[in-house]
Design goal:
The protein is mainly alpha-helical. The protein contains 13 helices and no strands. It has one domain.
């Protein structure tokens, strides 16, 4: 395989791991609340990120890159945006279908493409933009079911989470590009370790001050929390490899395959059905993702 296309299997692997992590976190919200479930992906994921970095350094024989001001700014911005996005996503999932909330969140690719172009200078081809728009129309079609809800709060939470996830993707890719040394794997692993470290420190301090019960709850539920942390770190490792190889817009558009995976989880594990409108949305997502791959090829 052309090494420039390795972002494709990396992104698919990331989407699969993230779907499993989201399902695990969703169940944790029922026992330790939204804040506690948000925190476990970082607190329990950070040790795994350090392990991944150590393995990368051993395999490549490269030195650990030294962070500069630009790197820290991008990493901190991406880390904060991801914390807020995760909390909003889990809040929405407490009130709405797992698959439909995932669709709300996945409205992010268009914004990612625009911000990536303005902030990082990442190019967007006409074919790629058309594919992004088609896939985004698919997730919008799926989210149309939310209009029948008694409240639009989960819709707002999901869309806001999507915008913040877009901002975090740009922040993380910016941090990877800001490192002055290291290959793809080292840059990705270094950025992941720093980002999860910052997130773990920030959330732990916040919970000690504002919600100790959530922190204690996550420590008591260590077994499912450990699983969520591992899956979260594994997904992020692959996301960051993708960000190191291509634009954030490409990665986040292909990541829409997560909507298909979430639909399977909803049907098989959570007994949540699919409407004709959602099927139309799923078809558009598939067409958009296929168009993106053709444009990149």
């Amino acid at each position: 395989m052309d090494l420039s296309l390795l972002w494709i299997p990396a992104t698919i692997a990331a989407a699969a791991a993230q779907t499993a992590r989201n399902a695990t976190q969703r169940r944790l919200t029922e026992t330790i609340g939204t804040v506690g479930a948000t925190q476990v992906r970082f607190l329990y994921g950070f040790p795994f990120a350090l392990v991944f970095l150590a393995i990368a350094l051993t395999i490549t024989g490269e030195r650990l890159p030294l962070p500069q001001e630009d790197f820290l700014a991008f990493a901190a911005g991406g880390a904060l945006a991801q914390i807020l996005a995760t909390a909003l996503m889990l809040s929405a999932m407490r009130e709405r279908s797992f698959a439909v909330v995932t669709a709300y969140v996945k409205t992010e690719p268009v914004l990612t493409a625009i911000v990536g172009l303005l902030v990082l200078g990442d190019p967007v081809t006409v074919g790629g933009l058309c594919a992004i728009l088609v896939a985004t129309m698919g997730v919008i079609a799926m989210s149309g079911r939310g209009a029948a809800d008694a409240t639009l709060r989960p819709v707002f939470y999901g869309l806001a989470a999507g915008a913040l996830f877009a901002a975090s993707a740009i922040g993380f890719r910016g941090a990877i590009l800001a490192l002055d040394s290291g290959g793809t794997l080292i840059r990705a692993s270094t950025t992941l370790a720093w980002s999860l470290g910052l997130q773990t420190a920030a959330l732990t301090v916040w919970l000690l001050i504002a919600d100790r019960a959530a922190l204690v709850g996550s420590l008591r539920a260590w077994r499912p929390s450990l699983a969520a942390g591992f899956l979260g770190a594994l997904a992020s490792q692959f996301w960051f490899i993708g960000f190191a190889l291509t634009t954030a817009a490409n990665v986040r558009t292909l990541a829409l395959v997560e909507v298909l995976m979430a639909q399977a989880v909803s049907r098989r594990l959570m007994a949540q059905g699919t409407t004709p409108r959602e099927w139309l949305g799923l078809i558009l997502v598939v067409l958009g993702v296929a168009g993106l791959l053709l444009a990149q090829a």
